[in-house]
Design a protein that fits this description.
- The complex is a heterodimer of chains A (196) and B (200).
- By secondary structure, chain A is α+β, with helices and mostly antiparallel strands.
- Chain A has nine helices and seven strands, in the order H-H-E-E-E-E-E-H-E-E-H-H-H-H-H-H.
- In chain A, the strands form two sheets. Chain A has a four-stranded antiparallel beta sheet with strand order 1-7-2-5. Chain A has a three-stranded antiparallel beta sheet with strand order 4-3-6.
- In chain A, helix 4 crosses helix 5 and helix 8 crosses helix 9.
- The longest helix of chain A has 26 residues.
- Chain A is globular and about 55 Å long.
- Chain B is an alpha+beta fold and 200 residues long.
- Chain B folds into two domains: 132 residues, Jelly Rolls (Sandwich), CATH 2.60.120; 48 residues.
- In chain B, the strands form two sheets. Chain B has a four-stranded antiparallel beta sheet with strand order 1-8-3-6. In chain B, strands 2-7-4-5 form a four-stranded antiparallel beta sheet.
- Chain B is elongated, with a radius of gyration of 18 Å.
- The N and C termini of chain B lie far apart (41 Å).
- The chains are: A alpha+beta (196), B alpha+beta (200).
- Chains A and B meet through strand 4, helix 3 and helix 5 of A and helix 5 and helix 6 of B.
Chain lengths: 196, 200
Amino acid sequence: MRTYFESLPVYSEYFDEAIDAIIAAMDSGIRAEKGRVLVELGATNKDFWFLKDGFLKEMYRSPYAKEDTLFNMIPPSSIFVNEDTLFANQRPQHYFTAYTSVEILRLKEEDYMRLLQQYPVVINLLYLSGTAEIQKSRRARLSMLRMNKTPDRIEWVQQQRRELYHIMDRITLAQYIGVSRASLYRAFEKNKKYQF
Amino acid sequence: MLSQKDVERLHYGLLSHIQLQGDGEAETLRALSNKFILRNVQSGDTLWDLDSESGDLHFILEGTFAEYLKRGAQSFILRFYRPGKFAFSEDLLLYSKHSDTFSKALSSAKVASLPSVYFQNALRQGGLGVKLMEVLISLSMTEYRNTTYEMLQTSGTNRIHAALEQFPDLLHLIPRRELADYLGISRASLFRSLKEIGHE
């Protein structure tokens, strides 16, 4: 977790005391087996969650699909939250499922508020920097989703999301890059270099 | 100089996003609204470009803008800005780095702009400035989330449906060529899909 904070652009040694306090406030966490829905992030949950180990699928209900759809894949060392609840006080539209077995740590909302009182500047900066990283990642993925050719999208994942590329099965990869399974298979057929 | 009506619209726009605590913040917000400068922009003119050095915060009073992300030799539309919305380069305003995007007016437009220095001052003072920063990041995250929903649709028709959900007035605001570019489909596909859903 310390590595995550140290990787944020705003990090300096001045933040260490607050980071130690955050780490000390995290509870012992949750282990979930592959396929389990994280029901801990319920309708009113505003806690901060840190994926220590494993991969998560972030799912949503698309009005245009019969089944729930993949929105994003979350790799280890990521923070994730109930965005709708935390930012807009609304029921969450997304939920999280363990794609592999996972280990997750939690910073409860009340502990976050207490730390915010104690270290207002640093906690605000870490919060802003953390959300900014999510935003940058979304923008980067959008640039991939605008690519016209499926092979270009696959290549982007290979280069920019290497960790995900190696863990995703083909169905998940097709959903992640927004193409049909048929398009993905055609691209693989044409170019053997994409083989797993 | 902004008219009183424009200042009120701008102030209301800010208020709709920020939860104020106490009279102090209300006063600071009012003072910040008064620092915005009116600009008239012609169709095709940029609000910021790849060489811009300062990140101003813009509030669209009239007209529509598109923000383009440069990728290699190509650029594609990342998002649209409509009246009553904030427009800004995340790179310049939030991260103080070179902008990877530029924004162009799709029609004649009227914009209220807060020079970067006032935004940075507000941020340094904490309180309202930090709240404003949180709001802008959260707005971007939500927009990107909605746009991701659109782009994850494999059919052109579903992409249009998803886009109309996000921007109900989209078809009236955006020329068809830009719309096809935004949705990542050909113009022929766009027209076919619009016909299919009864919009042409």
